[in-house]
Amino acid sequence: MRLSRYFLPTLKDTPREAEIVSHRLMLRAGMMQQASAGIYSWLPLGFRVLKKIEQIVRDEQDAAGWQEVLMPTIQSADLWRESGRYDDYGKEMLRIKDRHDRDMLYGPTNEELITDIFRTHVRSYRELPGRLYHIQWKFRDEVRPRFGVMRGREFLMKDAYSFDVDFAAAKRAYNRQFVAYLRTFDRMGLKAIPMAADSGPIGGDMSHEFIILAETGESEVFCHKDWLSADAVPADVDYEADLQPVVDACLARYAATDEKHDPATCPVAEADLVRTRGIEVGHIFYFGTKYSDPMGARVAGSDGKEVTVHMGSYGVGVSRLVGGIIEASHDDAGIVWPEPVAPFKVGLVNLKVGDVACDSTAEALYAGFVNAGIEVLMDDREERPGPKLANMDLIGLPWQVVVGPRGIANGVVEVKNRKTGEREEMTPEAAMNRLAG
Amino acid sequence: MRLSRYFLPTLKDTPREAEIVSHRLMLRAGMMQQASAGIYSWLPLGFRVLKKIEQIVRDEQDAAGWQEVLMPTIQSADLWRESGRYDDYGKEMLRIKDRHDRDMLYGPTNEELITDIFRTHVRSYRELPGRLYHIQWKFRDEVRPRFGVMRGREFLMKDAYSFDVDFAAAKRAYNRQFVAYLRTFDRMGLKAIPMAADSGPIGGDMSHEFIILAETGESEVFCHKDWLSADAVPADVDYEADLQPVVDACLARYAATDEKHDPATCPVAEADLVRTRGIEVGHIFYFGTKYSDPMGARVAGSDGKEVTVHMGSYGVGVSRLVGGIIEASHDDAGIVWPEPVAPFKVGLVNLKVGDVACDSTAEALYAGFVNAGIEVLMDDREERPGPKLANMDLIGLPWQVVVGPRGIANGVVEVKNRKTGEREEMTPEAAMNRLAG
């Protein structure tokens, strides 16, 4: 993509309304724009990141054995009356009346609707397990939306659901999602740590939040220092195998949110304990028959008797992750995208547009990257070198290739790693080979 | 995918509420399910088709030079008051009050919001043309939603917008979309014909509906018989070139909706005139300064004077197309998917699950297709042959490979083309080569 033609409205000044770094940087980098309070339009650069995150989430849900569906955003209130949540859910639920005065709502989550789909079609334990997910916009009418996409009102969420014949089977589904979450965040270049969460009235230990570490994170967290060097689960994990040992090994390393951490009972020696901050980006949850019971989601068991199915739900905040990744990965100059979610891999800067040698080298590199299938954004604008380089740092592409008249006179361009700041001069051919590798 | 594990709730009986064939077949094929009146959940098979259509639309918008953004579903009423449409839009607009009693709405279209994005960032003619699109759910509160996804309340639409400095430039944008639409529908295996549409108070000939031919279509259309054999625009069309000749050549062939067709003035001889039915799947529209004027979307022109930008909008009904394609392509046995939008390319039927020879051949073919990157759905359920074959016809995958004990005894399987009905016996290896080619 040529920046001269790209709709990338970067801002020089920091917008006053942005309280946290990810919100500031997303606005400054021209990634998004507020449409109304807590509701955003995704501009081309931000949209690319959102789609990359969504695709990683999708790939790993598919790999774990879930099937993608798509439920609508607008739901009938009747289903929520069946589960009892229509009255319980407070003012965060956006309630709507249609033209026939029927009570509708903008879904904040989908347990009711997915349970309705399940009970309509599934009759026998032989059709289990049921494993469905979707990636859809949700709405929660926050009283005071802020922090940009980290706490917006309209947000994109992946929510998966499981239906099983008993607790043991439900636990297998839970473990699959547990492992899928480790892989999902690892693939995005994030250190995500599962921490026990309140599981509500059901009890048990079947509820975990996945929290990424970020010094600017929203809440304080504690973990054993082994977590910082721990490998995520292997890429070739077999989802058909018993995953309990993988989950147990993971949970054996201490990690706790501020709410759960008690210095008096913490099993980790002070010297081994890391105190930092984090951001919740996922939450997995087993809730038994909480919805299936009132909504009548039952199947015939192997003995012919009716069984109420055991359910779980598994959420990832897809749009929230865009902000979360920036919180976890930025510096004073701007965003530092992990390569798997970067909007483009390479930022190609022509420092002197109009100079024949610079233009021809930049154009040749651009064509080379495009032909090699490498996503490249070329700054071909007539603009001074300083703002061009600052702009490239701001938007945070993993690699910069800088073409300038002094280098070209010596037959070289500069390749910069945005994360480490390392710069290296090399021939255009060597730059091509380095980044196409 | 193995059908034994796939959530594909096909129905034997035709649901009573479905009045048209696409609605009946989508329900029977387990593609979707009504959530509430005019609002549907997409089940795995339907979701795959929806995504394929979306991706073709996206590819062709990108190729034509548009950039993808994503605007939210919920909009502030204030913007619509600026354009004057808040009061004009009738009861089809879903109006919402948030917890702070602010007037919001579920966007039925996005001219106001995109104009707001444009005016916030663009100041100079040098930043034009502006070419943005998004693919997002819309809501129109139809008084009597029916016909399934053909006339739903919540529906997925691609809407593109153009911003240009004058009429001549706006016309170039219009022509690009005109050509992109021809290519988009052609890639889906559809015959789509542009027909002049009412352009409202602005007048001129810059509004066309794209209508696909289907005997079960919603409206009567007339066209010259040359349309039936006409090629769409070539795949290597150069969007940077002058597209007016391509557009003119296309419009030189007569085609008109019932509304526009007048036998008294029709230039086509009766013998050359085709009278059939059609379904609107796209609409492109130039509307000048209708929104940019009241909303103040102006740029500095080349002479420094302020210019109000000329706009156009270009819609494709993405979810509507799922139904539209079925209306255009089905038979008594079920759906007949054009290959580019088929949920799977191959339906592999093991007629006798449990038979060692059948199982091993079917499994080997399945592994072969998966390894070759061919999307395959294998019916590995324990079920009688008749219902299995009927089910495969119903869901309409382009190719069926049938593995049965009689064929296997002779070393062959049967390959069936769903559209032509042609069947051919061949070795499993030959079947593999035929379909992987």
From TrEMBL, chains A, B:
Its EC number is 6.1.1.15. GO terms for biological process: prolyl-tRNA aminoacylation. GO terms for cellular component: cytosol. It is found in: Cytoplasm. Keywords: Aminoacyl-tRNA synthetase, ATP-binding, Cytoplasm, Ligase, Nucleotide-binding, Protein biosynthesis. Gene3D superfamilies: Anticodon-binding domain, Bira Bifunctional Protein, Domain 2. It catalyses: tRNA(Pro) + L-proline + ATP = L-prolyl-tRNA(Pro) + AMP + diphosphate. One of its GO terms (molecular function) is proline-tRNA ligase activity. Residues 33-338 form the Aminoacyl-transfer RNA synthetases class-II family profile domain. PANTHER family: MITOCHONDRIAL RIBOSOME PROTEIN L39/PROLYL-TRNA LIGASE FAMILY MEMBER (PTHR42753), PROLINE--TRNA LIGASE (PTHR42753:SF2). Homodimer. Catalyzes the attachment of proline to tRNA(Pro) in a two-step reaction: proline is first activated by ATP to form Pro-AMP and then transferred to the acceptor end of tRNA(Pro). Belongs to the class-II aminoacyl-tRNA synthetase family. ProS type 2 subfamily. This is Proline--tRNA ligase. The gene is proS.
